[in-house]
Specification:
Chains A, B: It comes from Azospirillum picis. 2 copies of one chain form a homodimer. Chain A has about 475 residues and is an alpha/beta fold. The first copy, chain A, contains 17 helices and 14 strands. Chains A and B meet through strand 1, helix 4, helix 5, helix 6 and helix 7 of A and helix 3, helix 4, helix 5, helix 6 and helix 8 of B.
């Protein structure tokens, strides 16, 4: 789109929105005619047409053929973000996902949340796919059962048993992805207007997902030992949240792991306030030694454990899971049939099952942890040279949550009004580097002095060149 | 993997399994050291390492870092109940799905909504999977782009153009399934308390899905030429629905196809009342000749077209799509990232793309249509002998919507209080035959005199025996 025209269209849209907000244009009332409003605004009629069309697309106004445009009475369609494409898109909780997922091959992604493709166990995946090609007709052609592959659920049940979580295969539901696991739980437990607790900072997509559920999001400040338990207790008493969503091991974005005391306190408070907790255990494979789990201490009474295989096996073979109370799983099965007609592709679950059972898998994970430990140290050193300092040194995983150099810490120093990290991310994006600015993770918008780095995505020196240039501006 | 080495690994695994089965290696006991066992078995230590790793992946043994491998504490619980659908479950819009999806191999499913596995193009699917095993790392390991495979979207755009629907690849969004396509649209357009129109009868899962969105469902009586246009117009005026969900070709459950006049009238009324329509085109491949489409007449202005590949390619390879206005697609992309972190597995989309492009595909579809026409005639004849009569003879597809024999038509005749078809279905389920009773399709619950049959699932004479016995009761 032409930038100038885009700006003018935006001005016309804003003018209409202001009239509606101010009450000079009431629901059901006809909008000014295109010609008249074009003259009034000093723009071309085509600009007004486009503005009206876009407002109609947002549901703010409605078009009645042959009769013109009218202010809507009801709610607009659910737009999670303003739909500006590509580079000038607002930096919101969807920004990193959209920029990273749709980036071209020439774009570097130190802000993304996955390993480079050549770090993944592709040989084992290829073996699993070749085995799949020899499977029977039923596996290749049919819908699977409603809970998903029994063999994969049995394998997960055995893994959980090793971690002290006693969940039979019937208590496990395979889902289309880890995100879909959380989404299904939200559908099951939440009503619009409910309150949900998340960590501040937390994985940005928790916020995007919760917005889609039209719930109120309350953040609990996150410390190096996990969520602040005093503020957690206060938030429970004050906001009566229905749900708390967290990572217990290798928290995203900080890489921290809650202490045993924190885990115990969280569960005690949750019991006192009848709070349900979703424990997203997606980074479990990256831990050098297992850490305490909410689900293990709680025994899947009020904790729901979810996870997926996207981080250490394949993100292309979509498959997640839920482990929860049997009666909840039964209800979640119905909900998944109604809204998706099942969970993951049965063929995807089969590839996951075969690859997890591949003799090479344990060694792959060990090598991966060593490689990440090395990359973590090297990246921390190189970022340090640029004045970027890790908030803490994680025990595992691929994230480093780093504070910006002095002068960028506050909201408006260093010539960057507003959000320092967001401005750095915007500048880097023009140089084809996707960063993850702190505030996309922060409900309270208090992380403008932070960036999250993925140490596995920082081998290319251009990352550091672009960072240095953006910082020096 | 080296074939000989693979065999040796298997021998080592078998040796351990024999020791455990014979009791010479008890649960919790340490396994022989790798070096010792390699000598004993006359294999290399690496073969033993691989055997132990695979047994650990199977859960037969456990690894304790720094200490070796130990026999697991007995076999994991075998949850036989997980394959067994609950017989006493209430007959609601989810009943047919749950009973069909979780049915054991000994259950016949004339009520289900899919073809038998051996009617599907499995050879082409196997070729596509073998090709996938040779794909690059990025396809096997990475999340895909947010809209899904560009090549598959281009192929769909070309198909749509053939049908007179002008939609660029950017107007197409791949989804995890056809159901997820509708679900995403509902999330985008609906608020709790909104009203949605469906056909009466309609695909039962539309009702289950809409219940999950907490909207009011209003049914429009369905005639042999499509929805009753007079009652459709009345419903629009009276209920102001936000959305109408329908199949335009080979309607589920009746197999009817709306007339061109009906299609035109629906669109005229929709325009007058600013109604959005979801056209679920999942049975398109079964049409002998294309019929008029809402999306083609409307040009994707207020019609959203959705579909999937589950009926003619594979239901195991989950992939659906949405074609809609560009601005709506942009918002739907955000919503899909937030709630599922993307659409179908990229590997699933790749298998679909390859299989659709397989030289055999067109011939497969032609043969399938002929085979279904034959099965339709034969099934109608055999049902007729039992007093079950098709409401109409569909042009294609696998459904026959049949009225029950005289004496079962009303609500409480023939000794069946309440719902005659539901009672037949319940009786048949005890004989391991899943039927689809009329009222699971009917918002107004006025179809107790009907059953929907799937002519492709009725080759086994037991279906007719069980039907005859249930009717004679």
């Amino acid at each position: 789109m032409d930038g100038r025209k885009g700006t003018r269209t935006g001005e016309v849209m804003d003018a209409i929105r202001r009239r509606m907000a101010g009450g000079t244009l009431s629901p059901g009332e006809r909008l000014p005619s295109i010609r008249r409003f074009a003259t009034a605004m000093g723009v071309s009629p085509s600009t007004v047409v486009e503005a009206y069309d876009r407002l109609a697309a947002e549901g703010v106004i409605r078009s009645r053929p042959g009769s013109g445009f009218y202010a809507s009475g009801g709610m607009p369609p659910l737009a999670l973000a303003d739909a500006e494409p590509r580079l000038d898109r607002a930096i919101d909780p969807l920004w990193v996902s959209r920029q990273s997922l749709d980036a071209g091959d020439d774009t570097l992604k130190p802000g993304c949340g996955w390993l480079p493709a050549d770090w993944m166990p592709n040989a084992a995946i290829r073996r699993a796919i070749r085995q799949l090609a020899r499977a029977g007709d039923a596996l290749l052609a049919d819908y699977g059962g409603t809970r998903g592959s029994p063999a994969l659920r049995r394998l997960l049940a055995r893994q959980f048993a090793d971690e002290g979580i006693d969940a039979g295969p019937d208590q496990i539901l395979l889902t289309g992805s880890g995100t879909q696991a959380i989404d299904l739980i939200c559908r099951f437990l939440l009503r619009p207007g409910d309150t949900v607790l998340v960590d501040d900072p937390c994985y940005f997509n928790f916020q995007a997902l919760l917005r889609a559920h039209r719930v109120r999001i309350v953040g609990v400040p996150y410390r190096s030992t996990g969520p602040d338990t005093v503020l957690f207790a206060e938030a429970l008493a004050r906001h009566r949240p229905r749900l708390y969503i967290t990572n217990s091991a290798l928290h995203n974005p900080t890489g921290a792991t809650p202490s045993p005391q924190t885990i115990h306190r969280l569960l005690t408070e949750a019991a006192a306030h009848d709070l349900t907790i979703v424990e997203d255990d997606i980074f479990a494979d990256f831990e050098p030694e297992p850490s305490p789990r909410l689900a293990a201490l709680d025994g899947l009474a009020r904790v729901i454990r979810i996870g997926s295989f996207s981080k250490t096996l394949s993100a292309s073979i979509r498959c997640g899971y839920i482990a929860a109370r049997p009666d909840w799983v039964e209800a979640l099965v119905d909900l998944q049939v109604a809204t998706a007609f099942g969970g993951p592709s049965p063929v995807a679950a089969d590839i996951v099952l075969t690859a997890l059972g591949d003799g090479s898998h344990r060694k792959h994970l060990e090598a991966l942890r060593r490689r990440l430990a090395r990359a973590r140290r090297e990246t921390a050193d190189r970022l340090h040279a640029l004045g970027l300092r890790p908030w803490l040194m994680p025990r595992g995983g691929f994230y480093l949550w780093c504070s910006l150099p002095d002068g960028f810490q506050g909201g408006s120093q260093g010539g960057f009004p507003g959000d320092a990290a967001a401005e750095l991310a915007r500048a880097a994006l023009h140089d084809k580097v996707v960063l993850a600015p702190g505030n996309v993770f922060s409900v309270s918008q208090t992380a403008s002095g932070f960036l999250r780095f993925n140490v596995a995505q920082m081998a290319d020196p251009r990352v550091y060149e672009v960072l240095a240039r953006a910082i020096a501006r």
